[in-house]
Amino acid sequence: MKWENLYTPCEEQGRIECVRYCTRAYALEHIYKKECIPLEKSMYVYLPYNYDAGKKYNVLYLMHGGTEDEGYWFGKGRYDGADTEMYTDMGNVTQNVVDQLIQDGMIDPLIIVTPSFCEDVEEYRNREEYPAIYFDVVNYFWLELKRDILPYIQTHYATYAEDATEAAFVKARKHCAYAGVSQGSITGLNSVMLHMADYVAYIGSISAGSIRHGFDGKELKVEPDEGKIEEIADALKKSQRLAFWYNGCGDNDMMYESHRATYDAMLKACPEKLQEDVDGNGNCAFRLQTGGEHRYRYWIHDLYNVLNLFFH
User: Fold this and answer.
1) What pLDDT sits at residue 211?
2) What rounded mean pLDDT belongs to the chain?
3) Which of 119-123, 219-223, 231-235, 288-292 has the weakest average pLDDT?
4) How far is residue 310's CA from residue 193's CA, in Å, rounded to a whole number?
5) Any residues with CB less than 8 A from the CB of 157 and at least 6 apart, and which?
6) Interaxial angle between packed helices 296-309 and 94-103, expressed in degrees from 0 to 180 and rounded to the nearest 10
7) Which tens digits make up the pLDDT trace of 116-137?
8) pLDDT tens string 153-187
9) Which of 52, 77, 172, 217 could cross-link to 71 by cystine, CB 3.0-4.6 Å?
10) Cα 64 to Cα 47: distance, rounded to the nearest angstrom
11) What's the CATH code of the domain at 18?
12) Cα distance between residue 115 and residue 145, in whole Å
């Protein structure tokens, strides 16, 4: 199928809901060493055409990048009507791509959830004044995902988890995936892969590896975080084997070198659980986009790959 066809609306369109849920401010509590006021947050939920509450669906948790929020992937909230510079020449096409793949039978109908790792929006966006918040949110998002988001989705939508218990989520892990871009990719490594490999069988890392936290002046440090990589590898050795770990980045992306270095270091540190897919038997791969940049118009190609690789 040609990309321009994938980008256009199809006859069998899914629908997107905005839901509200409550959660503790896990990152802020860690930073300030005190109990903080609980948060009421939003996330968007994509439901496929003819969604049937009597069936069971795979779930992909899809995360945005730095300074963005839960509306980014589907062009909702403050992104409604965003110009083509932010997305593609046809604007935001995420739902169109998913709808087209489902309608053409290329992937099974699934639920896509777009949460946000942001704890406090104003403090989070002010990276110079609150650098700890900007980075620590990625390390503590797993607590919100595990304790608040997964249970909410299980109790309100038709997933493979039979109930909202830990045992049920672990049993249904091959029907649960996470993918993120940029800081959302770092979240997938530093938070989801590190703490939730027994809950999530598929992980997509797009345009960022595990980088050192902090700023040098006003420039983001992008060298690989060797200590964190070792920590993640040690955790994977004690967890169930990932069904697939997808990595995607463009060679013109500012995160390319650190992302590639992270991928290579992870394979070297954890050969027991990570094998490159060169003959159809491995469970991880690195897809390079020639000319690819740190932008949605390239990330939508990675999402296409993720949708076609996961849940098989």
Assistant:
1) 79
2) 91
3) 119-123
4) 16
5) 45, 47, 53, 57, 59, 111
6) 30
7) 987 654 555 555 555 556 677 7
8) 999 999 999 999 999 999 999 999 999 999 999 99
9) 77
10) 19
11) 3.40.50.1820
12) 9
Strand order across the 58-63 sheet: 15-23, 39-47, 110-114, 58-63, 176-181, 202-206, 244-250, 284-289
How many domains would you assign to the chain? 1
- Could you read off the pLDDT of 267-288 as tens digits, one per residue? 999 999 999 998 888 999 999 9
Does the global pTM surpass 0.85? yes
Ramachandran quadrant class, 202 (left: phi over 0; alpha: psi -120 to 50; beta: rest):
beta
Whose structure tokens read 């700023």? 215
